Structure formats: C-alpha cells, structure tokens
Amino acid sequence: MEREGRTESFKAQAIEIASLAVQAILYEASCHPSPGLVSAISTGAHSDMDYFTFLDSASALISPLIQCAHAGLSTESPKEIFQTIRSIGQLGEQRMFAKTRGVNTHKGTLFLLGICCAAAGKALYSGAGFASLRSIIQDMTEGLVEGELSARNQELANTDPTKLTHGERLYLTHKIEGIRGEVQRGLPIVFDIALNVYQENHDLSLNSRLIQTLVTIMQFCEDTNILHRHSLETLREVQVRAGRIIALGGMKTPAGIKAIEEMDKDFCHRRIGPGGSADLLGVTVFVALLEDLFNGR
Ligand SMILES: CC(C)(COP(=O)(O)OP(=O)(O)OC[C@H]1O[C@@H](n2cnc3c(N)ncnc32)[C@H](O[C@H]2O[C@H](COP(=O)(O)OP(=O)(O)OP(=O)(O)O)[C@@H](O)[C@H]2O)[C@@H]1O)[C@@H](O)C(=O)NCCC(=O)NCCS
Ligand SMILES: Nc1ncnc2[nH]cnc12
C-alpha cells in the first residue's frame, strides 16, 4: 500500500510541476506587443504560425513535460536524468511537429522547460528545495556544449550543411553556443537578470510585466533565431535597441511603450523573430511559479 501511495504522490507532483510549465508557455505566447513574436493578437515575424499554432503546440507538450518532471522524481543522478529526458524530448518534438504540421513552435522551449521540470522534480525528491534548482540544471547539462558541439567540430565540418541544425551550423561558423551554452551555464539571463524584473514589477499589469521582462532579456540573449535568419549585426542592433527601450522605462513609461510598439512593427516588417528570448521569458515565468510552489504561496 505504501509503495502505491508514493507512486501516486510522484505522479501528482509531476503533474503539478508540468502544469506550471504549460502555464508559462501560454503566458509567453499570449503577451503583447512582443516584438516580432507570435502573440494573441499578432503573428509577428512569422507567416507559418499564429496564436492557435502555439496553443496546439502547448497541448502536445503536456505529456512530455509531465514525463520529464517525473524523471526527476528519482534517485538517479542529474546526469542520468538528463539522458533519460533526451529521449522523452525527442519524442515530444515529434508530438509538437505532428500537432503543428511540421512548424517549429517550441523546440527550444521544450528543451529548456523539459530540463527545468526534471530539475524541479529532483529538487523536490532530494528535499534540497528551490535553492538547488540552478545547480541541478548545471549538473544535468555539464559538458553539453563540449559533447554536442566542440568535440564534434570536425564531424560537423564534414557534414552537408543542409543536414545541420541552425545551432550546429552557427557553432561551426561563429562558435555561437546558443541554447546549449545558456542552459549549461545555469540560465544566467533567467536567474541573474529576468527573474528579478518579472517578480519585482508588481505595479505593472501581468501583460506589461511579461513584456518588460521580454525586452530586458532581448538585451542579452545570443538568439540563434536572429543569427540564422539575419546576421550578427542585426542581433547586436536588437540588443542595443532593447537596452535603449529599458533605459526609456519600457512598459513603465509612455515613451517606452511607444518604442516597444515601434520595435514590434519594425521587426514584423523585417521578419526579425527573437524566439530565443521568447523561450527564456517562458523559463523565467516557470521559475517564478515554481518558487511560489516551493514556498507554499
Ligand atoms: C538541443 C536542441 C534543442 C538544440 O537544437 P538546435 O541545434 O537546433 O539549436 P539552436 O538552433 O541553437 O536552438 C534551438 C532553439 O532554441 C531557441 N534558442 C535560440 N537561441 C537561444 C538562446 N540563446 N537561449 C535560449 N534559447 C534559444 C530557439 O527556439 C525558439 O525559436 C523557435 C521558433 O522560432 P523559428 O524562427 O520559427 O525557429 P526555426 O523553425 O528554427 O526557424 P526557421 O527554420 O523557420 O527559419 C522555437 O524552437 C522556439 O522554441 C531555437 O530555435 C536539440 O538539438 C535537441 O536536442 N532537441 C531534443 C529535445 C531534448 O533534448 N529535450 C530535452 C528535455 S525535454
Ligand atoms: N511567441 C513566440 N513567437 C515566435 N517564436 C516563438 N518561440 C517561442 N515563443 C515564440
């Protein structure tokens, strides 16, 4: 009876964690004006997806995210947990592509939130609590860039470029570490910068807090979506412009709001889609929701 009780409890905990991840995904896709991104009122810089594509995609991610959280609720080491969730994530990507008819809505999101859900499960199971989340993420992904990119440099160089992912190609040409580098470093943009912005600005509406956090992230994100579709110059332009908007007050001032609206129009016209920043916004919301869960709020 006791074993059955524990199993049911782990299932309930995994569902609780994953439900926060899906909530974060929905918040991210809904907020506006999100410069160049898909939102509840805009298709952003994209012609192949809209808000409902993201809602469809979110529904496909519920099961893999529960499985990832459940994988963390175990005695396995963080490294072993990461290996377990890679296969869950690859199947989850297939579910996503099936649901979106081949459109990449959340490949990065699934990777990041899958890892974070598993780390949350481990933090809960080990009793180490919310404070251990970041170090568990780092332990899970230690050596990821070396293993998947730098150690494969020659292999990648000998591979037909059309067979490489955007991330692999950008590492080969510019040594850009992208999403792998961000998560291996323990998501510094989320934990050291974005989380505080999202949690502190309670004088703003939820929608405004989300946009304020997104633009804050855009200053620092080495976004491979912008790099593969445009250039390093365009990425630097985006980062500098985001910094100027934050200096204007962002969503806290009429001038900042006007600048964000102008940025959105410009990015939609120029087809600049900061999908990497969108992913980090979703992770920021998830981490904030998780902190409330762990602290019983
Ligand atoms: C580990 C992988 C997920 C890495 O895949 P890949 O080699 O392709 O790596 P990247 O291209 O570098 O990045 C993949 C996505 O990560 C997001 N991203 C980009 N830069 C950053 C960053 N600096 N920090 C965080 N996240 C970043 C981004 O994802 C979002 O944008 C996508 C939608 O925008 P769109 O422009 O349409 O994207 P594309 O379709 O690629 O463009 P077009 O071809 O249409 O022009 C969407 O994915 C958002 O999430 C990058 O796209 C992968 O190799 C892997 O292992 N996957 C398996 C899953 C797994 O392991 N899961 C584990 C736990 S479940
Ligand atoms: N809202 C969004 N629009 C475009 N790409 C995204 N990737 C993740 N969220 C996104």
TrEMBL record:
NCBIfam families: citrate_citG. One of its GO terms (biological process) is prosthetic group biosynthetic process. PANTHER family: 2-(5''-TRIPHOSPHORIBOSYL)-3'-DEPHOSPHOCOENZYME-A SYNTHASE (PTHR30201:SF2), TRIPHOSPHORIBOSYL-DEPHOSPHO-COA SYNTHASE (PTHR30201). Gene3D superfamilies: Triphosphoribosyl-dephospho-CoA protein. Its EC number is 2.4.2.52. Keywords: ATP-binding, Nucleotide-binding, Transferase. This is triphosphoribosyl-dephospho-CoA synthase. The keyword Ubl conjugation does not apply.
